[in-house]
Amino acid sequence: MKNQVELFLRGLKSYKQAIKFLIKNKLLYFFLFPIAFNFLIYFSGLSLLNDFRLLTTQHLENYLEGFGASEDWWVLFLNKFFSISIWLVSKVFFFYIFSLFGGYLTIIFLSPVFTYLSEKTASIQKGKIYNFNFTQFVNDIFRAILISIRNILVQLLMVFVLFLIGFVPVLGWGISIILNLTIVSYFYGFSFLDYTNERHQLSIKESVKIVRRKKGLAVGLGLVFYLCFFIPLLGGVISSFLAIISVVAATISLEETFDN
Predict the structure, then answer these.
(1) What interhelical angle do 111-126 and 134-165 show, nearest 10?
(2) What is the per-residue DSSP string for the chain?
(3) In this structure, are residues 189 and 222 in contact, taking their beta carbons and an 8 Å threshold?
(4) FRET partner for 13 with CA separation of 20 to 30 A, picked from 43, 76, 121, 174?
(5) Inter-residue contact 112 to 118 (CB < 8 Å)
(6) Closest to 194 (Cα-Cα) out of 129, 125, 254
(7) Could you give the 3-state DSSP secondary structure of residue 181?
(8) What's the Cα-to-Cα distance from 17 to each of 6, 11, 144, 224, 249, rounded to whole Å?
(9) What is the domain partition of the chain in residue ranges?
(10) What is the DSSP letter of 168?
(11) Exposed, middle or buried: residue 252 (CB in 10 Å: 0-12, 13-18, 19+)?
């Protein structure tokens, strides 16, 4: 238990190391990728939601017109009411879903960037040059996506169990909140750590064993990343930038444990 607490604290502290590392080694240009990612996600996501709102509103308007003239005050009122309600609900739903799975969307879509960044970080840290292999690079990307999908499925199962526990008054609420925070943080940390495990040619099964032994480190790394999603409105945007720091932090901290 004491060892896991130390690993947890190392995960938290590694973010400070990562920021210094990025600045010192002039790697800040990697933050350009989250800018492009956020533009794509928000522009396409909100555009789809707006199309859905217009389509739904049109159907409701046609339906209400069947009960009276289209210019009747109550038809206009209901049409406006439903239009605003659909707009509000769709926006809330979008940000809620992004808060739950936005981290994995970031990891999946930016996996080529994270794969390269982790390798570059290790190369600078250890003074070792890794020869670029396109086939291996593609395999690394698919592995990162596979890990993310696996983590999503396992996480959903656990969160569902915690949802049921949450029906128990007071005690159930506390257990559900704490364990949910821990579990989600663990799986996010797992995703960031696996880039290093893969580079050490560990299979997914071996990577799972390594991360389980260092669960404190995974939770510490993932917690900082996950907490960003609790920031109103901007949480998803900030987390995508923080993911760059998370990958570097995970690489630095895990490479140190491999050395030890």
Answers:
(1) 110
(2) -HHHHHHHHHHHHHHHHHHHHHHHTT-GGGGHHHHHHHHHHHHHHHHHHHHHHHHHHHHHHHHHHTTS-TT-HHHHHHHHHHHHHHHHHHHHHHHHHHHHHHHHHHHHHTHHHHHHHHHHHHHHHHT-PPPP-HHHHHHHHHHHHHHHHHHHHHHHHHHHHHHHHTTSTTHHHHHHHHHHHHHHHHHHHHHHHHHHHHHTT--HHHHHHHHHHTHHHHHHHHHHHHHGGGSTTTHHHHHHHHHHHHHHHHHHHHHHHHH-
(3) yes
(4) 174
(5) no
(6) 254
(7) helix
(8) 16, 10, 24, 14, 7
(9) 2-33+111-259
(10) S
(11) buried
Report the chain's terminal Cα–Cα distance, integer Å.
19
Top-confidence residue, 51 or 157: 157
Short-list 178, 183, 187, CA closest to 159: 183
Report d(CA 30, CA 241) in Å as an integer.
9
Closest CA to 187 of 120, 128, 250: 250
Q: Which pLDDT belongs to residue 260?
A: 60
Q: Is the dihedral of CA 108, 154, 103, 187 positive or negative?
A: negative
Least confident of 50-59, 129-138, 157-166: 50-59
Token pair belonging to 189: 């940390």
